[in-house]
Specification:
single chain
Length: 704
């Protein structure tokens, strides 16, 4: 009784002190933060032999000890600054020649927790520890760069004189055709139909791309090839004259019933005549120069795992042996070909040896035999240098099926090390982006690829969350739609496996040439052209969901990459339907204006290019996250529900203090978007906000 009366006589301040002295110490997990941006790792991309300062943030007065554990050695960290919300700790250590692995341990009384790439944990999971790869530097220009992917045959026909002609040659047993109706749906087996898009068409539309705000153009393959997709390279040394310039145009078309390409003399002249080839290369150099003048970069597609059966090294079609130009015999034709070692043959059936190894068994895609030919390796490394060097000066390579190259994992990694060395010596600012499905960690250690086409840590989680669809529109899963645990879990797991250097320049796409268009996925319909027809890809689509996705694309870490025509409302099932033409004159003007605005927002807010990222809030079909640095903060809120939702979001985690306010800078909704500014007053670091159905809101720290 005496104790109770004594406590009752104490002031409120004294009562709080007694409570604080007797309460069990806890660690404010959500106050903890670190990452690999230059705020928390300085320099962010250290070289071997350098010192690096590593930092972490804790709650104010919340930690007794903060320890860095690097390569199993402990370093006590010191508090170097604080503010009203947080304490900041740092320690300086040496970086050696080899990979450095680290994490943080935070102690408060008897409470202990750990922090690594997936955030705070009660039990340390070393799988997600930070890694430093000494000397791994990715190009600064690519960090947050807005890229634009062009499938050239379907973008714009600027030069009718280089169009593929009906019966010009035969491909996979049938004659090729030139499409005269630009708006025609691609045929289901449309690999041999050509719409006429070319580099002159790209040149003609540079004003449009510049006005959109594009920083880099990624071209699907440009080299001489018989298909419209051109992933079956015929000649790595030259731009296809059907995309470039045809100076000499002599010879005959194939007659009905004749599939012998040695008789396709018009085609032979077009693609083997060095006048055309050299003119096309010169024109490409001019195109790149003009793109550079406009402040944009160029990335080209490298298909080095396999080539095509038309390739001059194989010459299965007898194109080069029938040419009026002087070419060496192909490996298909003769055992004595200088290129015989470039392919793996399983018998000695020359001439016309059809026993070569094809990628996934496709005889139109002969696999290149690097382990059996140092000459081939040297040739391809020469190609790698050639196109990033004068006079072409392209700014990077996208590498097709890069993990498949070679016959062993060991050689694959060794080849890409040599490839990186060749490219970076020729052009240190060139970016190397690989296509790979699955864990790419072992290629992203600083000695091979810079980054990847980001399926696992962007396209797939965004697609599942907003649409419930698989990225080919082959499956719908209601349990994935709006599932925030899968979304953030998948994102954070795969982001950590990539590492910060790779993620900062990752190619974040919603659609591309290998998957259904994102706008089509919003109809939540399973289908392909052969099952439901092309028209069904346009039915029931939801532009409001698509705009939510684009907002996420432009505010997530990495390089947002637009697949040509997505911004104009193009739909389509998986390939070849996703390769519809750009709808010039029939564009969705609302979506184009929206893309201009969201790209402008992305570029004007530098925190969206290189700032830190943090998850803030999640519930079914509703998420919020932030991008922030010492000066600025951006909050993104997505409501993918069919009704209005309210939420209370802890924006103090971004460093927004009790006196800070935020303003809306972009909002999307069913029927459109707005860019009007609207202020919100925070309540002790919390944002209370309501969002209408199927909408996205972007808010920024208000600067007075």
């Amino acid at each position: 009784m005496k104790i109770t009366k004594t406590i009752e006589n104490l002031s409120d301040t004294q009562k709080k002190l007694i409570y604080m002295c007797n309460v069990r110490p806890t660690i404010k997990m959500r106050a903890l933060f670190s990452d690999a941006t230059s705020r928390y790792r300085e320099p962010a991309e250290p070289k071997a032999g350098e010192q690096v300062v590593l930092r972490i943030r804790t709650g104010r007065y919340n930690a007794d000890n903060v320890i860095l554990v690097a390569d199993n050695k402990e370093y006590e960290m010191s508090r170097y600054k604080n503010d009203e919300l947080f304490d900041y700790y740092q320690v300086r250590i040496d970086v050696g020649e080899n990979k450095l692995i680290y994490y943080f341990r935070i102690e408060s009384g008897k409470a202990v927790c750990y922090y690594n790439q997936i955030g705070p944990q009660k039990d340390h999971n070393p799988y997600y520890d930070y890694e430093i790869h000494p000397g791994f530097e990715t190009p600064e220009w690519a960090k947050g760069a807005v890229m634009y992917q062009i499938f050239v045959d379907r973008f714009c026909d600027g030069d009718k004189s280089n169009n593929v002609l009906d019966n010009e040659y035969a491909y996979i047993g049938e004659h090729v055709t030139g499409v005269t109706d630009w708006n025609k749906y691609p045929a289901q087996m449309g690999v041999r139909e050509f719409y006429g898009g070319d580099l002159q068409g790209v040149l003609d539309k540079l004003d449009y791309l510049q006005g959109l705000g594009i920083d880099a153009i990624y071209f699907n393959p440009l080299f001489v090839s018989p298909s419209n997709h051109k992933y079956d390279i015929q000649d790595y040394d030259y731009i296809d004259p059907h995309f470039g310039k045809i100076i000499s145009d002599n010879g005959d078309l194939l007659k009905d019933g004749d599939n012998n390409n040695a008789n396709a003399t018009r085609y032979l002249d077009r693609v083997t005549n060095r006048k055309n080839l050299e003119a096309s290369n010169r024109f490409f150099a001019e195109v790149v120069e003009e793109i550079h003048k406009r402040g944009m970069r160029v990335i080209i597609d490298g298909v080095f795992n396999h080539c095509g059966s038309f390739n001059k090294w194989l010459d299965k079609e007898h194109i080069y042996s029938a040419s009026n130009e002087q070419y060496d015999s192909g490996a298909y034709e003769s055992h004595d070909s200088p290129y015989a070692s470039f392919f793996q043959f399983y018998s000695n059936q020359w001439p016309d040896n059809n026993s070569y190894d094809g990628w996934w068994g496709h005889d139109t895609l002969p696999k290149l035999n690097y382990e059996g030919s140092k000459k081939l390796e040297d040739y391809i490394l020469g190609i790698a240098k050639k196109w990033v060097s004068p006079p072409f000066n392209v700014d990077g390579w996208r590498l097709d099926v890069a993990a498949d190259l070679g016959h062993s994992c060991e050689y694959n990694h060794e080849f890409w090390r040599r490839f990186r060395k060749a490219v970076k010596e020729a052009n240190p600012e060139a970016v190397i982006i690989a296509e790979n499905y699955g864990d790419s960690h072992d290629w992203l250690l600083g000695d091979q690829w810079d980054t990847i086409m980001n399926y696992d840590a962007f396209m797939e989680p965004v697609t599942w969350f907003l649409t419930g669809m698989q990225k080919h529109s082959d499956e719908y899963r209601a349990d994935m739609l709006g599932n925030p645990d899968y979304f953030f879990g998948g994102m954070h797991h795969n982001m950590s496996r990539m590492g910060s250097e790779a993620y900062s320049v990752s190619m974040n796409e919603l659609s591309n040439h290998d998957h259904s268009r994102f706008l089509t996925r919003t109809n939540r319909t399973v289908g392909r052209v052969n099952t439901v027809g092309p028209e069904a890809a346009d039915r029931g689509v939801d532009k409001a969901v698509f705009m939510e996705a684009v907002v996420m694309q432009m505010t997530w870490p990495g390089a947002p990459t637009i697949y040509y025509g997505d911004e104009a409302g193009v739909c389509g099932w998986t390939d070849p339907d996703n390769r519809r033409t750009y709808p010039w004159g029939r564009e969705d003007k609302l979506l184009i204006e929206f893309h201009r605005e969201v790209i402008r927002m992305h570029k004007e807010n530098k925190v969206l290019l290189k700032g830190s990222y943090k998850q803030l809030y999640s519930e079914y079909n509703f998420i919020a996250y932030g991008r922030f640095d010492d000066e600025d903060a951006v909050i993104v809120v997505i409501n993918n529900n069919d009704d209005e939702k309210k939420a209370r979001i802890p924006v103090w985690e971004l460093g927004l203090g009790y006196d800070d306010d935020v303003e809306q800078i972009l909002v999307t909704y069913d029927g459109g978007f707005g860019k009007q500014h609207l202020g919100y007053r925070l309540k002790e670091g919390w944002l209370e906000i309501g969002l209408r159905k199927t909408s996205a809101v972007v808010l920024r720290k208000l600067k007075w």
